[in-house]
Each structure stands twice: as C-alpha cells, then as structure tokens.
Amino acid sequence: MKRVSILFIALILTLRVVSAQDLQAVLDSQVSEEMPGILFSISSADLSWSGAAGVMDTESMEALTSENTFRIASVTKTYVAASILRLMEEGKLSLSDPISQHISPEHRDILAQDYPVDQITIRQTLRHSAGFFDHTNAPEFFDRILTTPSHEWTRTEQLKLCVEKGEPIGPPGEQFSYSDTGYLILGEIIEKYTGKDLDGGIKELLGLEKFGLERTDWERKDPETDSLRIHQYFQGMDTFGFSPTVDYYGGGGLLSTTSELVQFFQALFAGQIFKNPETLEIMLEPVSYAEKAGMDYQMGMYRVKIDGKMAYTHSGFWGTQVVYIPDLEIFMAANYSSAWRGSAVAPIFSKILEEF
Questions:
Q1: Distance between CA atoms of 305 and 322, rounded to whole angstroms?
Q2: Which end of the chain is least crowded, N or C, by CB within 10 Å?
Q3: Cα-flanking dihedrals φ and ψ of residue 5, to 5°?
Q4: How many CB atoms lie within 10 A of CB 12?
Q5: Is residue 16 predicted with pLDDT exceeding 70?
Q6: What is the rounded CA–CA span in Å between residue 167 and residue 341?
Q7: In this predicted model, what pLDDT tens digit does every residue of 97-107 receive, in sequence order?
Q8: What's the pTM value of the predicted model, to 2 decimals?
C-alpha cells in the first residue's frame, strides 16, 4: 500500500498543471508591432479560460479584454449551415432541392445567366461544390472596398458581381471551390423561411439566446455588442470603418467573442442545436471528389490537423478561428486583430497545447 501511495504521489508531481499565468504568457508572446492584439478562449473537462493581450486599436492603445467583440467573418458560415439544416429538420426544404425553388425570381434570373440553377442543389451549395465563382475574388470587389470603404453593398449587387466578373468553376457537385457567393444564397433562404433578417432568423432556428450568447449578434443589431468591437487590421490598414455590408449576407456578418464561439461549438457537438442526432452526422459527412479538394470541407465546417490531431474548424478572413479536437475534448477560439498568414491553423493553438 505504501509503495502504491508513493507511486501515485510521483505521478501527480509529474503532471503539468496549466495556470492562467501560463496561458496569459502564451498570449502575450503573440503580440508585436505587426500584431496589435489577440483574444483567446479554451474549454475542456478540466479547464475553462478566456484571455486577451495587446490593444483594441493602435491609436488609443486601450487594452483588449476578453469581453471584446470582433467580426468573425466566414466563421458565420457554420451558423448559416446549421440554420439551413434546421430548416431541413422543420420540413421547409430538402438538401437535394435545386436552389431555384427557394430564392427570389430576381436572384434566380441573375444567376441563371451563367449557372444551371435548376440543377444546383442546396447540399452542393453548403459544401462549396456548386461551381460558383466567388464574387470576392473579382478585382473590382476589393477595388471598391479600398476606394469607398463606406459603400453599402447589397446581396443583389454581390450576386451580379459573381455573374458579371467571373466564370463558373465547373459542373455542380464535381469539384470543391470555396465561394462566399453560395452562402449569400443560403442566407436568403434563411430569411425567406423565417420571415426575419439573418440576425433574427439564425437566433430563432439555432436557439442561441437559450445558451446565453448575449454578444453573438449581427453587426448593427445590438448597440452594446457593436460598442465592444475591436479594430481589425489588414496589411497594416485599419478596417474598422469598412461597412459591414462588405461581408454581411451569409458569408459573414456576425460579431462575437471567443468565449461565445467556444460555447456555440460546444452546444453544436453536444447535440444541443439540432433536433435529431443524425443531422450533425449529415453536417459532418466526409466529401470526396475526383480531384483532391483544397480543403476537407463538409457543411459550414472543415477538418484540419493540429499537432497530428484531427480537428473540426472554421476560420474567418479578419483573423478568427474556432476548433474542436475530439481526441482531446478541447474547444478553442482565437482572434488575431491582424490576421495571421501562411497556415491553415492559427499559431496560438499549437502553442497553447504545448502547455499541457
């Protein structure tokens, strides 16, 4: 018995106890002149922690806090995809339906100039396999943003940009090609069947408020959420004054915090968002194509490796990423106020895992 006790004590002493100071030190190490700030949250069976390092903007030098909000950009697609799947559960649509059945005649006619809208399905649109040119890849798109950052974009205007400034990538369902344009269409479908804007429609379908997600709002919908928004930078340029309509209609649009991103992913993978367990399986069903896809993308979610472990994730243009690592039962979310580049995975995640 005495020998067992000694061995047990020795084992305890060898375990790495991760403190808030350890995690804060990792965040602090990420801040530099080029990277003004970082926000981060982690949750596992043994740990729940949120932190911040750096400043809210480089003019005021006000310190960031974990309560600050930010434009999550394409991470919004996870919420949009889940909302479409909720509409499927409610019997409003089938994933095999052509998009032409569910969008306005005006938008159907615009897209039909270049695309077989009677053949492109909702499933293909969710998976980025519909063949849509991404309107954000049109040079005219960023030219307009940089010359007139306050320009108020419309969904119709962006759909026209898709048709007028690019060519179809290929036949529906035969290839992966990431496209914000497809998620504009899915956003319209959510608005149609809920009779609400995307803020109200997604909150209704996903039940976000019952999870206490008070700072997860479409930009311009909650003054307090807006007031907490940080400055986000692109190649040294402060984008704070860019109209949110640049990315507002389903490809992006939400503001949130890192802790609430983690909470949403936890609810999703715990089976609390969908009515039927099979729906999450549909969302995460692996997809393959004749030619290897550039991303292992499912529906509003894709898979990556982090330190050799498979993770479900989505990232956003302005520096946001959320991950769930099933083998470790760890959820993490981060926002770099100047987006990291050169890797599919935000550097902070591996650095944090080194602490365990």
A1: 13
A2: N
A3: -65, -40
A4: 9
A5: no
A6: 27
A7: 999 999 999 99
A8: 0.95
